[in-house]
Amino acid sequence: MNNDSENEEAKENAVPLARRDFLTRTGAIIGTAAIGAAFSPLARAIETTVALPADQLLSIPTWTKNLGGPTAKPYGLPSKFETGAVRQMYPGLKEPMSAYSTSPLQELDGIITPNGLFYERHHAGVPDIDPAQHRLVVHGLTETSLLFTVDEIRQFPSVSRIHFIECSGNPSFLPPWGKTAAEVSGLVSCAEWTGVSLRTLLEEAGLKPEAKWVIAEGADGAAMTRSIPIEKCLDDVLVVYSQNGERLRPEQGYPLRLLVPGYEGNMNIKWLRRLHVTADPAYTREETAKYTDLMADGRSRKFSFVMECKSLITAPSGTHKLSRKGRHEMRGIAWSGHGKITRVDVSVDGGRNWYEAKLQEPVLNKALTAFRAPFDWHGEEMVLLSRAIDETGYVQPSHKQLTEVRGKLSFYHNNATQPWRINTDGEVTNGRA
């Protein structure tokens, strides 16, 4: 018999075998038999194959028997049953003028944070800005001072990129430690941002040779102001007007904000109104009295802009519970202000032994990267850990390693590994508590 005849015979024999194998292996899981009189032959066939009692077969739910709701809604909303995926206000902050809320990391999948769940940080509340009246000025050490409307900004060539933003206080070095992934590290989110390259605007204005810094200022009541090196401004900084395909939300800086990829969150100035080109940094309150890293010798680091390599297991994580024994999957996110994540290692014994997790595509520059890793749990106590490595070779440190360098008074830029403890009953708690 020639090869073509053998292949045809194999194909003919493979079809019924595949069907029988599918029915035998998956019929019990799907349990599809009682799905209505119209499908009774299929139901009887599956019931015969898997030998399920009639009372264990799928019944027809109420919503399958009735017409659904209308499709025409001005703006889509999540299911009413998804009550856990909401931002949480930090419990210690009662005043609305200086507050933040965290993204529910333990409820999210993938790398894109929905706009309504993107973390918030405000220093004087959320201003109510009319975009028709808003203006952005570029001036200082430039050949020409420029004043733009929002519409004029949108007329420049656009750029869309996916990047994370993370608050430099995510999380504090100090207790109390949070219970959930959101409470531990919920001040990080990731989105696709659309806007115009800051380089384009600076070239439009013309930079003078002595231009070394850009002082960005917001239009909120705090006039949030930060100094950004000119090299960074000419590299990958954007003036953005859209997030995940729609216009910025008010709490995210509507109608214009700065996006400074990889740098600490407060440098991504919201409600952007002014870009002042200077020869020196401004040394504002937010880069001297605040957002500086105290060291063990009492001095502080100057301009610690970049958010270092970091990872977090989001499932299972604090307040989750394993309800069955056997094979499970660790899921989490990793990110680095220096570039791409190249590897994530995970541990089930508190860091004594490590194995490599699988990175989920896409792996992007200065964006969240999802990772997954299998593990087995049979009722024993475990401590789950993850550590990320970025393309510079930097390895995420443990809390002990970080405090040995920084001391115990440091507050910002905590990128230490985060342990989660699985108890013998399956309850998951913060392993640092």
UniProtKB/TrEMBL annotation:
Source organism, top-level taxon: Bacteria
Annotated Pfam families: Mo-co_dimer, Oxidored_molyb
GO terms of biological process kind: sulfur compound metabolic process
Cofactor(s) it depends on: Mo-molybdopterin
Enzyme Commission no: 1.8.2.1
Keywords: Metal-binding, Molybdenum, Oxidoreductase, Signal
Gene Ontology MF terms in the entry: heme binding; molybdenum ion binding; molybdopterin cofactor binding; sulfite dehydrogenase activity; sulfite oxidase activity
InterPro entries for the chain: Ig_E-set, MoCF_OxRdtse_dimer, Mopterin_OxRdtase_euk, OxRdtase_Mopterin-bd_dom, OxRdtase_Mopterin-bd_sf, Sulfite_DH_SoxC, TAT_signal, TAT_signal_bac_arc
Domain Moybdenum cofactor oxidoreductase dimerisation residues, every copy: 305-416
Top-level EC class as recorded in UniProt: oxidoreductase
Record-annotated Oxidoreductase molybdopterin-binding domain positions: 123-282
Gene3D superfamilies: 2.60.40.650, Oxidoreductase, molybdopterin-binding domain
Transmembrane segments annotated in the record for this chain: none
PANTHER family from the UniProt entry: SULFITE OXIDASE, MITOCHONDRIAL, SULFITE REDUCTASE
Protein name as annotated: Sulfite dehydrogenase
